[in-house]
Amino acid sequence: MSITVKDVEHVANLARLELSEQEKEQFTGQLNAILKYAEKLNELDTDGVDPTSHVLPVTNVMRDDVVRDSVTLETALRNAPDEEDGQFKVPAVLE
């Protein structure tokens, strides 16, 4: 597969980019070099290699849920700037 200047112009148009002729030639060369390098992957012998979605095994790193006592209402409201009837009191945001 090869990238042409027309392909670069099309992508630039989709991205709403204005490129000079020099930039179009430069990007065409760079993209072709990237594709040529990626084609080296086709040289690898992958027979007998199982497909994977991750290189390393993925495990759950979450801790187990443990039931424990909750914070009391008094402790929760201890640092509140203002409280009323056991609830945080905040300035009104609507009239």
Structure notes:
With 95 residues, the chain is mainly alpha-helical. The protein has a domain at 5-43: Histone, subunit A (Orthogonal Bundle), CATH 1.10.20. Helices cover 35% and strands 4% of the residues. It contains 3 helices and 2 strands. Strands 1-2 form a two-stranded antiparallel ribbon. It is elongated, with a radius of gyration of 30 Å. The relative contact order is 0.08.
* Helix-strand pattern: HHHEE
Sketch the major β-sheet: 2 strands, antiparallel
Cα radius of gyration in angstroms? 30 Å
Distance between the termini: 65 Å
Assembly context of the chains:
single chain
Number of helices: 3
Subunit structure: Heterotrimer of A, B and C subunits.
Keywords: ATP-binding, Ligase, Nucleotide-binding, Protein biosynthesis
Catalytic activity: L-aspartyl-tRNA(Asn) + L-glutamine + ATP + H2O = L-asparaginyl-tRNA(Asn) + L-glutamate + ADP + phosphate + 2 H(+); L-glutamyl-tRNA(Gln) + L-glutamine + ATP + H2O = L-glutaminyl-tRNA(Gln) + L-glutamate + ADP + phosphate + H(+)
Protein name: Aspartyl/glutamyl-tRNA(Asn/Gln) amidotransferase subunit C
